[in-house]
Write a structure and sequence with these properties.
Blueprint lengths: L7 E5 L8 H14 L4 E5 L5 H5 L11 H6 L10 E2 L5 E3 L5 H9 L7 H6 L8 E5 L6 H8 L3 E7 L2 H4 L2 H14 L5 E8 L6 H17 L12 H5 L7 H4 L4 H15 L3
Parallel strand pairs: 1-5, 1-6, 2-4, 2-5, 6-7
Antiparallel strand pairs: 3-4
The structure holds adenosine-5'-triphosphate and magnesium ion.
């Protein structure tokens, strides 16, 4: 992407819970930053998982994405904090749950994040946005502010339900607020090669992506207990033990993102 077109803004979205949106956002941000790109991670989920995964004490966060969205004349610049991992974070706290209601009353409610990000666009090469497990106003804002969307899908039957609804939502966002939104790809997560279920679901996904003309990332993220333990390491898994398979898989994904369509 040409320099003067601004940063690549990747929203990580799937309304299904627990499919590794936050794990992917945090590790992708770390891997992209490690490759020398100026990177910002924006947490649009009131659960505030990004700060937790980075070992921050969320009770000490005084100003967060909530204020950046709802205060008059505020911007994301007001809430950005540096992390120890070469990228910046705009953290979320539970306050953000209130924004769901407040934003609905705002003018052009779907474009608030896009407008509030504008002052920082020239500071970054990549902006990664983590989203909540819903298709509400916070996710729609995140999709409206994005150049690309990355869809993590947990490799199990139940995870495929709702994919059509998500694609319909993306189509709607394209039609109404963000015609330039590209699907960067679908990422198969929590893949367990030992189970027939994972292999069958992956095969279905590959076929589905082929039919729909959607990119399926070559790199698959495998099921690993290390990811469940990861918040306890207080840093992205990719930095905690570089040689772990999970760390390598996210580095490969970052390489695919950097070398690929963006
Ligand atoms: N590859 C993996 N292998 C095993 N566990 C994983 C993997 N990726 C993520 N997890 C675990 O699955 C759980 C959900 O992951 P995560 O929080 O990243 O999902 P999410 O989509 O952000 O969830 P939510 O919808 O609640 O925001 C966490 O306990 C996480 O540690
Ligand atoms: Mg999450």
């Amino acid at each position: 992407m040409a320099e003067n077109q601004g940063p690549v803004v990747i929203t990580v979205a799937n309304q299904k819970g627990g499919v590794a949106k936050t794990t992917t956002s945090v590790n992708l941000a770390a891997c992209i930053a490690e490759r020398g790109k100026r990177t910002l991670l924006v947490d649009m989920d009131p659960q505030g998982g990004c700060a937790v995964c980075l070992g921050m004490d969320t009770t000490t966060i005084e100003i967060s994405v909530y204020e950046a969205l709802v205060r008059p004349k505020a911007s994301i610049a007001d809430v950005i904090i540096p992390t120890d991992f070469r990228f910046d974070l705009a953290p979320a706290t539970i306050d953000l749950a209130g924004a769901e209601i407040e934003l609905k009353q705002a003018l052009a409610a779907e474009t608030v994040l896009q407008r509030r990000l504008r002052p920082v666009l020239d500071r970054y090469d990549y902006i990664i946005i983590d989203t909540p497990p819903s298709l509400g106003i916070l996710t729609v804002n995140s999709l409206t502010a994005a150049t690309h969307v990355l869809i993590p899908i947990s490799t199990e039957y139940m995870a495929l339900r709702g994919l059509r609804l998500l694609l319909d939502t993306l189509e709607n966002v394209r039609e109404v607020t963000n015609p330039g939104l590209d699907i960067l790809g679908i990422l198969a997560t929590r893949y367990d090669a030992r189970t027939i279920n994972s292999r069958e679901v992956y095969a279905y996904l590959a076929d589905f992506c082929d039919r729909e003309g959607i990119h399926l990332f070559k790199q698959v993220i495998r099921q690993s207990v290390r990811f469940i333990e990861a918040p306890g390491y207080r840093m992205p898994l990719t930095l905690w033990r570089r040689q772990l398979d999970g760390a390598k898989q996210y580095r490969e994904l970052a390489a695919e993102v950097l070398n690929g369509k963006t």
